[in-house]
Amino acid sequence: MAKKKEVTVEDKLRALYDLQLIDSRIDEIKSTRGELPLEIEDLEDDITGLNKRLANFKNDITDLNGSIKDRKLAIEESNVLMKKYTEQQNNVRNNREFDSLSKEVEFQELEIQLAEKHIKEFKAKIVHKEEVITVSKEKLSGLESHLKHKKEELSEIMKETEKEEKVLNKKSEEYGKLIDERLLQAYTRIRTSVRNGLAVVAVERGAAAGSYFTIPPQRQMEIAMRKKIITDEHSGRILVDIELATEEKQKMSKFIS
Q: Quick one: which of 144, 119, 156, 157 has its CA closest to 33?
């Protein structure tokens, strides 16, 4: 039975650096989209909110029209009662009954006046809400047009990079499986904690790439020996020597444009 090949520290470092190259290219692709995905999301939220507002205004107008209808029915009922009380006044037997009926007529007149006042107020509210709806619809049309433009812009960018991104994502998964879970978790943790997503960097001119802190010569020798995983004491990034980095960049150039 063939003996299973031992995975050396150097193998792990190469796999980590390869994974970093792939993930960095994916980051570059995503950065070409800029703020477009967030802008689209914000526009969609604004449109949803405006549509909800428009629906509320339309419901308010329906309710106000219902209230106007109720007040008109109340006016009709008051007119019927007034006619009834006025007719009854012709058949009263004394002044007390006449005065009582007169008060009923006056009350119904007040009810009519109040209903007419409410109708006037409701109609004014409807006019105001219809004006707001008109303005909101214009704004909605503008937002929808802007959203369409932004989606088309994003779609064009996606078309240019979609194929490459699919290949790279697949490769990222494949290379991730070559690294033991604990080391992969460390890589992911470092990557998410640094601004540029670089968890594995090469030592160049005596310092970690992107750092101004010099690495002691003894430490540089240890990194070049590739016998253990060494991290930068300032940034926490995993360090590899420049020769290994150059070799892996050349090897991975067929995947990364």
A: 157
Assign domain 36-160 to a CATH class: mainly alpha
Domain locations in the chain as residue ranges: 9-32+180-252, 36-160
Report the alpha-carbon distance of residue 43 to residue 55 in Å, rounded.
18
Q: Is it true that 9-32+180-252 and 36-160 share their CATH fold?
A: yes
Spatial separation of the C-alpha atoms in residues 97 and 92, rounded to whole Å: 6
182-241 residue pLDDT tens: 999 999 999 998 888 999 999 988 888 877 788 899 999 999 999 999 998 888 899 999
Tokens of 218: 């003894």
**pTM score, whole prediction:** 0.61
Task: Give the Cβ contact number of residue 80 at 10 Å.
Answer: 11
Instruction: Look at residues 147, 144, 158, 167 and name the one whose alpha carbon lies nearest to residue 54.
Output: 144
- CATH class label, 9-32+180-252: mainly alpha
